[in-house]
Structures are given as C-alpha cells and as structure tokens.
Amino acid sequence: MSTKYDEIIGEIQSRLDDEQLKSGEKLPSIRKFAKEFNCSINTVLKAYSELEKAHLIYSVPKSGYFAVGSDMPKQQTQMKIDFVSAGPDKSRMPYRDYQHCMNQAIEIYKEEMFQYSHPLGLASLRQQLSAQAKDLQVFAPPDRIAVVSGSQQALDLLISLPFPNNKKEICVEQPTHFSYIDSITSRGLKPIGIEVNQNGIDLNNLEKVFRERSVKFFYTVSRFQNPTGCSYTNQEKKHIVELAQKYDVYIIEDDYMGDLDTRKKADPMFAYDPSGRVIYTKSFSKVLLPGLRLGLAVLPEALLKSFTQAKFAADVHTPVLTQGALEIYLSSGMFKAHIEKLRRQYKKKGTILKKAYLEHLPPGAAFTGGDSGFYSTVELPGRMKAKHLVEYLQKKNVLVQDATGMYLPEYRQENRIRLSVSQVDDRKIAVGVKKIGDGIRTLAK
Ligand SMILES: Cc1ncc(COP(=O)(O)O)c(C=O)c1O
C-alpha cells in the first residue's frame, strides 16, 4: 500500500510530466495539499523536500515551492514512458540513508583506507552478509562469502577458473542476461543453451545435456529471470540440483533479485545443496544503488583459493568505503526495513503490469513474468519483428527493448521485447502497455 507521502510525490510528478505544472509555476500550498490528501502538514513538507532533493521543484523563502524548468533534459526524459531502464526506481532508493553510512564509514574505516585489504572483503562485512543471507535460506559461513564489485564480477571470474569436475562447457538458459553471454563469448567459448519459457524449463533436455556434454556449470537465474521474469518452482529447483549432483555439474545460481521475493516458502537452489555444488551470487544493484558495484558470491571450499587469486588479479579488492557503508547499512537494520517496503512496492508494480497485459495486449501476443515488476517479455504475434515495434513506439514516446540480443544465435527469436517497469511510475504502466498493445495492432495490419 502506498503512503500519503508516496501519493503526494506521485501526484506532483505526474502533474509535472503532464505539464499541468509548468516551469516556474507555483505548487499548491502545503496547507491546501495536507487538506486535499487528508494528512499532516509534516507529511507534505517531507514529500516536497524529497522532490526538492530530486531537483524537480525548488523553494523560495516566504513564497512557497515552484516547478523546476520543463526545458531541462531531466524533465524531457520524464515525458517518456521508459520500459528499458533496468536500474532501481530512483524515488524509492535510500540515497540519503546511504550517504550517512558513507560518512560514518569514512571515519570508522579510516585505517583500512590507508592500506590494501583482503581480496574477498572486510571480515566484518562478510560476517554481516552471512547473517543476512540466512533470511534468504542461504546458510554459509563468512569465510565462504566473497564481496565482489557487482555480482557480474563474480559471474565473470568464475568462467575462467578451473572447476573440480575438470569439465569445460557452460550451459545457460535461453534467453538469458545478455552481459553474461558477452562474458562467455569474449573468452572464445560457445555456451550451450537450454530453453526456458512460461511453462518453465525442459528438464529432460537439461538432463540430456548434463549426461552427454562435458558441462562445467549451468548458469541459472532461479527467480525473476532476466529477461523473462520467470521463476522456478521449488520442485523444479530441487530437480535441477539433483541432476547437477548426479552428473557432477556445478550450478551458478544468480539470485540477483532474491530479496524481492514475497513468497515466503520459495527457496533458492543453494538451500538444496549448501555443500558447494551450488555457487550462489547476489547483487545489491537492483535493491540498493547500482553505482555502488556491490555483490556477493558464496563459494565452494575447493574454489576459495583460485577465486581469491582471480579477484586479487582483477581489482585487488572492492573499495573499502562502499563495503564499510554497506556493513553499517546492514547492521543498523536499515536494509531490512528498506527491503520490506521495496518488496511490497515491486509486487504492486507487477500486479499492475499483469493486469495491463491482460487488458491491452491483442490476441496472438503473449507475455512472460511480471511478478516482481522488474523484467518481463512480450512475444509479438505472427512474423512481427521486435525492432520494428521498438522504432514505432519510440515515436510514441514509449521505450521498450528488443530482446534479440538476449539469445544465442541458434536460439534467436526476433519477435520478443523486454520490459522493466522498475522506473515507470505506477500510474503510467497501464498507459504504456496500452500504447504497446495499440502499436502491435497497428503493425499487424
Ligand atoms: C540477471 C542479472 N544478473 C546479474 C546482474 C548484474 O548485477 P551487478 O550490478 O550486481 O553486477 C544483472 C544486472 O542487470 C542481471 O540482470
């Protein structure tokens, strides 16, 4: 449920977007808004102050609050409905709280700043991460946890490390996170694809590949997959782990958005084999700030030494200041409180998106995912190409992404678009999806 504070911010943002409030125009008085929204003056003041920090409005002493110029680039981009940007929702990120943590960290970790520290991260942060990971059913001691410069770094480093099974091939879902396709192919390797769709994964095919090929690891995004937005059931996850055990294949479980899962009983694959068969990675980019470049990996004992060497060779260690700030953010309880709010907000985004898909997509178009409000895909009807729809919608100020690059060449589908509603205002989601539906109808003629 959104609070009055959120509602006021949303209301002003949409008045600015729709140009009901133009550059230099005065905002409603605080007293008037408090009455209109049936809330305290303090709540309105807090909301206005947040909008001021975001440079959307400014205050003039004794006169009130005014809209910042609509000729500014920031304002122009807000006219668009952006389903491409996959960063977190800016209005919900705890930027100021983190700033306080950074300020504290620069004092607390002063000594550490004058020297190099451990490649796998600050011991005190690893302890906090170990404790916090338990909330996600990931039980791992601090010495198996590596702090990395974004989870992408751990995923990337693992490609080149020799694994205890001495196998060479890498298996990925199809479609998958395109940066990881780049990570693998840039090493001259050709990944094996496993199709996933709204019906899940073909476990017989996965078993065949595990049995017949020399698979080093299977890279999987077990919930809120990028780009499909699909999540495996517990039964599927258990089955995949059993297959990995049976055929001596490792699993790299990219749980980049595990924090946003509202299903209390949903386990990560790691929970089905915490011994090291499943290498678990988690990101702070979608739930905190991507610019921090913070993530973690839970490694098997057998890979600790080689991973430490590779991490040292890559960047010695992740910056102490951001690590220290994360430790303070976690230990103070701020993270927990933030995540609980965020989970509800993203769930709401997902619900709005799904409803909009059902209402506005024409027959012949299908969608996947949408549960977290982060990623989902739309399959276009007939032979319609995603790139044509992308171009058409751009002219209508709706930005969507062609998903073609998220497939390996042999699995390529050119009729899928990816949507993220993370940075789209809740009230704009249905408007944008309707424009997508109308666009599909127009191009199908
Ligand atoms: C599936 C998936 N895994 C990992 C990452 C990378 O996260 P990080 O910013 O922690 O490197 C992303 C980023 O979008 C992603 O979509």
Structure, described:
The protein is α/β, with parallel strands linked by helices and 445 residues long. The chain folds into three domains: 4-71, Arc Repressor Mutant, subunit A (Orthogonal Bundle), CATH 1.10.10; 96-332, Aspartate Aminotransferase, domain 2, CATH 3.40.640; 337-444, Alpha-Beta Complex (Aspartate Aminotransferase, domain 1), CATH 3.90.1150. It is built from 16 helices and 16 strands. The strands form four sheets. Strands 4-11-10-9-8-5-6-7 form an eight-stranded mixed sheet, with helices on both faces. Helix 5 crosses helix 13. The longest helix has 27 residues, at 334-360. It is globular and about 70 Å long. Residues 70-77 have low confidence and may be disordered.
Summarize the structure.
This protein is of the alpha/beta class.
Percent strand: 15-25%
State the separation between the terminal residues, measured CA to CA. Answer: 41 Å
**Architecture per CATH nomenclature, i.e. the level-2 architecture of the largest domain:** 3-Layer(aba) Sandwich
CATH class of the largest domain: Alpha Beta
- Counted by DSSP, the helix tally is 16
Helicity level: 40-55%
Q: Count the domains.
A: 3
How would you characterize the largest beta sheet?
A: 8 strands, mixed
CATH topology of the largest domain: Aspartate Aminotransferase, domain 2
Characteristic terms for this protein:
single chain, 445 residues, alpha/beta, 8-stranded mixed beta sheet, 4-stranded antiparallel beta sheet, globular, binds pyridoxal-5'-phosphate
Lay out the secondary structure.
Layout: H1 4-17, H2 30-36, H3 41-53, E1 57-60, E2 64-67, H4 73-79, E3 81-82, H5 95-108, H6 110-113, H7 123-133, E4 145-148, H8 151-160, E5 169-174, H9 178-185, E6 192-197, E7 200-201, H10 203-212, E8 215-220, H11 234-246, E9 250-254, E10 278-283, E11 295-298, H12 304-315, H13 320-331, H14 334-360, E12 366-369, E13 375-379, H15 386-395, E14 398-399, E15 401-402, E16 416-420, H16 426-444
The chain binds pyridoxal-5'-phosphate.
Pyridoxal-5'-phosphate binds next to helix 8.
